[in-house]
């Protein structure tokens, strides 16, 4: 498998035609590894990557593992919507604050949104959940929600996920594991927080209204 034949996560040309703000609640049929927009498949072991479901997203960051029980929620905010901003930090922070309000209402822990720029060892950026980016959410200092975005003249597409399970399978798939990455990749999950994914999703829908909601299934 080469970079030029890797299927994209969405039909991004269709996304750009949407005139209404839209929230996508997505569930992959099988565990799926998703590379960032500028990542080469060479970061993954040549033999092992032939055996897994693999896609590419448009948006920054490293490889992320999406699993069937994750809370995977994406928002398309067209440029004519009042919530659109030319400042990418403002957009990411708004999404992070929606997540923060939902989680803080359900947890007796400190829930914070990272408001700064990208942080973390550059070598760890091969994996999305190993660093800190704008709008990402941390519970008691431990990463909980990953956020990335893709911006075009028609609007901004913000992707977010709260994992249901560990991201350790990424370590097994990488062609090289940078020193310190296993510890940096440790994050909260639905299970470690004792949360119900359907409940969290419903609360995010309410907070981000007015918005159209679409349920999608990502096939292998």
Describe what this molecule looks like in 3D:
The protein has 220 residues and is α+β, with helices and mostly antiparallel strands. The chain has helices at residues 12-15, 88-104, 169-173, 181-184, 190-193, 197-207; strands at residues 22-28, 32-35, 53-56, 64-66, 71-78, 111-113, 137-139, 142-152, 155-162, 212-218. A 7-stranded mixed beta sheet has the order 6-7-8-9-5-1-10, covered by helices on one side. A hairpin with a 2-residue loop joins strand 8 (142-152) and strand 9 (155-162). Helix 2 packs across helix 6.
* End-to-end separation: 15 Å
Strand arrangement across the biggest beta sheet = 6-7-8-9-5-1-10
Helix content: 10-25%
**How much beta, percentage-wise?**
25-35%
The outline comes out as: globular
| Alpha carbon gyration radius | 16 Å
List the secondary-structure elements in sequence, H or E.
HEEEEEHEEEEHHHHE
DSSP strand tally: 10
CATH superfamily: Bira Bifunctional Protein, Domain 2
**What is CATH's topology name?**
BirA Bifunctional Protein, domain 2
Largest sheet: 7 strands, mixed
Q: Please write the CATH class name.
A: Alpha Beta
* Number of continuous helical runs: 6
Query: Total domains, how many?
Result: 1
Any key phrases for this structure?
single chain, 220 residues, alpha+beta, BirA Bifunctional Protein, domain 2, seven-stranded mixed sheet, three-stranded mixed sheet, 6 helices, 10 strands, 20% helix, 26% strand
State the gist of this model:
By secondary structure, the chain is α+β, with helices and mostly antiparallel strands.
């Amino acid at each position: 498998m080469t970079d030029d034949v890797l299927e994209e996560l969405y039909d991004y040309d269709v996304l750009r035609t949407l005139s209404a703000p839209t929230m996508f609640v997505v569930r992959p049929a099988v565990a799926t590894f998703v590379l960032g927009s500028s990542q080469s498949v060479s970061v993954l072991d040549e033999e092992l990557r032939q055996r897994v479901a693999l896609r590419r997203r448009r948006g920054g960051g490293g490889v992320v593992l999406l699993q069937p029980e994750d809370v995977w929620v994406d928002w398309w905010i067209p440029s004519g919507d009042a919530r659109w901003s030319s400042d990418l930090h403002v957009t990411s922070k708004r999404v992070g604050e929606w997540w923060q309000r939902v989680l803080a209402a359900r947890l007796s822990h400190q829930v914070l949104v990272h408001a700064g720029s990208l942080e973390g060892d550059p070598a760890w950026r091969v994996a999305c959940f190993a660093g800190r980016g704008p709008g990402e959410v941390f519970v008691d200092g431990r990463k909980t929600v990953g956020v990335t975005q893709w911006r075009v003249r028609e609007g901004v597409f913000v992707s977010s996920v709260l994992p249901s399970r560990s991201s350790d399978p990424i370590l097994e798939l990488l062609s090289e594991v940078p020193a310190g990455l296993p510890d940096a990749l440790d994050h909260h999950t639905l299970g470690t927080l004792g949360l119900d994914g359907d409940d969290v999703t419903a609360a995010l829908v309410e907070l981000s209204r007015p918005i159209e909601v679409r349920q999608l299934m990502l096939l292998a």
